[in-house]
Amino acid sequence: MDANFWHERWQAARIGFHQSDINAHLQQCWEHTDAEAGNEVLVPLCGKSLDMRWLAEQGHAVAGFELSPLAVKDFFAETGLTPSCKEEGPFLCWQQGPFSLYEGDFFKASELGLQFKLAYDRAALIALPPDMRPAYAEQLAQLMERGGRVLMVTVKHDARDDQTPPFSVPEAEVRALFESLFEVTLLEHTSAGAQHRRVASGECSYFDELCFLLTRR
Ligand SMILES: C[S@@+](CC[C@H](N)C(=O)[O-])C[C@H]1O[C@@H](n2cnc3c(N)ncnc32)[C@H](O)[C@@H]1O
Q1: CATH of the domain at 80
Q2: What is the pLDDT of residues 33-54, one digit of tens each?
Q3: Is 78 exposed, middle or buried (0-12, 13-18, 19+ CB in 10 A)?
Q4: Ligand 1, atom 3: nearest CA belongs to which residue?
Q5: Looking at the whole model, is its pTM more than 0.95?
């Protein structure tokens, strides 16, 4: 997926990945990160996710990384905040209250020299095609302190069209990508069943969600 793919999705408002509710795995599993209020949470490929607001409500600062200026603009407008903006390395950093959204390419994030104790990935790894996932794992590892924890939500499905996100990234692949860098624990595995939109439409015969805790070695 190149940058244009995502810019076009945002320009055409084809953002079916955006959830109008707070993610259930986040609410159920965040306690496994042993998060302390005040710790900043890294949110790679953040879109305009409402989950960032939930994290802020738990007392966290949030550092989101997002390619699309439209997503960043919408996030602040819909949160009722007017951000300030400054250049930070290869990014434009939009900041207000607990939120710092870095507009630019997440794969350059390590150039900022930041280190995080906490991160949250929902629909980030699964937005990337297979050839980009090892670099993503490497980038995430570079940004996490030793002992730092990542809550990661992936999906597993058997859609015939596997050329566009959300890509199926099952447990074996998460382990293959991350286990040399992180201790990997599967926290939850849920099956949406026949009522899921993609199953009901015949796109796939099942659509599962997996929630992992990754602890940086
Ligand atoms: C599937 S969406 C998920 C968004 C968000 N995590 C959520 O749960 O709603 C993936 C997002 O990553 C952004 N993105 C894709 N590649 C990126 C990159 N290299 N750096 C920063 N953002 C990127 C896209 O613009 C898109 O908003």
Answers
A1: 3.40.50.150
A2: 999 989 999 999 999 999 999 9
A3: exposed
A4: 123
A5: yes
